[in-house]
Amino acid sequence: MDKLYRELSLKTSKLTTKLYSTSFSAGLLCIEKQSREAIYSIYGFLRQADEIVDTFHEYDKEALMLEFEQEYRKCRERGISLNLIINSFVLTVNKYSIPDDLIEAFLSSMKSDLANWEFSEKGIKEYIYGSADVVGLMCLKVMTHNNPADYNRLKGNAMSLSSAFQKINFLRDIKNDTENLSRNYFPVLNNRPFDTETKKIILEDIYLDFRDALKGIRELPKNARTGIYLAYLYYMKLTAKIEKTPTEQLMKRRIRVGDTQKFLLFCSANIRSLLGKRFMR
Questions:
Q1: Same fold, 1-96 and 99-212+232-272
Q2: Is the pLDDT of residue 121 over 90?
Q3: pLDDT per position as a tens digit, 43-100
Q4: Which CATH code of 3.40.1210.10, 1.10.600.10, 2.60.120.580, 1.20.120.340 fits the domain covering 1-96?
Q5: Inter-CA distances, 97 with 68, 89, 235, Å
Q6: Which residues, including other chains, have CB under 8 Å from residue 172's CB and lie 6 or more apart?
Q7: How far apart are CA 249 and CA 243, in angstroms?
Q8: 34 closest CA partner among 219, 217, 221
């Protein structure tokens, strides 16, 4: 493949990441360049699929998702795609030997968003695995490149971190999910209202995931640890703000972490990571 076309593909994924998530992009600045570019490619692919199922309401989502999936499979077979984001992703998949089963689980979860509006306990675990946990595993595959022992040792922690991120995103976006998309990602709310008690149950589960995730973050390679720790601190701050926000307010506005707080978290993550893992908490 032409070098310039490879570079264009990677830059397209990078631009996609920066446009859609300034916080995630900031965290990636703390990761060494090669891994950072690979994660841009992963994020771009995931974001494009997510956009199809979440925002393209005026189009045939099923048809678009099928085209997206078919183009991915063609790219795997022939080694190139005119879809720059898919092309970039497949370059990363091949370079870092990202397992097919992770990608298939992700595609399955995206397609389930077109059909499932309310999840059981079993169903939501499967959905979160495909929509979030596999993302953490893909990124871990990049960060532990050529070190399968580290990958296998940290898999569970990576999944816990991804699950926590996904669940808090669900909680933050509960107004849009329930009112605009008619989706309920919390089985506890299938037969109960969203109130202080049910929010507490949801948050207790999220904090359990965060506690397990931190154990793994401390053991990541130094060239990747700070960026992931920054993401952890950001989501912990977001979780704390959501915990303090009354449920009726969560149904009216989307909670966010301000730019000043983000900057302070950036500084804190770099200092604590530099001091060593016992300061990371």
A1: yes
A2: no
A3: 999 999 999 998 898 999 999 999 999 999 999 999 999 999 999 999 999 999 999 9
A4: 1.10.600.10
A5: 21, 12, 29
A6: 238, 242, 250, 254, 255
A7: 11
A8: 221
**Which two three-digit tokens encode residue 175?**
């107004």
Residue with tokens 């720059």: 84
225 vs 236: CA distance, rounded Å: 16
- As beta bridge partners, residue 118 has 184
pLDDT value at residue 81: 96
DSSP lists the bridge partners of residue 184 as: 118
Q: Residue 135 — pLDDT band, cuts 50, 70, 90?
A: very high
pLDDT for 260-275, tens place per residue? Answer: 888 888 788 878 877 7
CATH number among 3.40.50.720, 1.10.600.10, 2.60.40.1120, 1.20.210.10, domain 99-212+232-272 = 1.10.600.10
Q: Where are the domains of the chain?
A: 1-96, 99-212+232-272
Question: Given the structure tokens 């995103």, which residue do they identify?
Answer: 169
How far apart are alpha carbons 106 and 72 in whole angstroms? 13
The model's pTM is: 0.88
**Cβ atoms of residues 220 and 228 within 8 Å:** yes
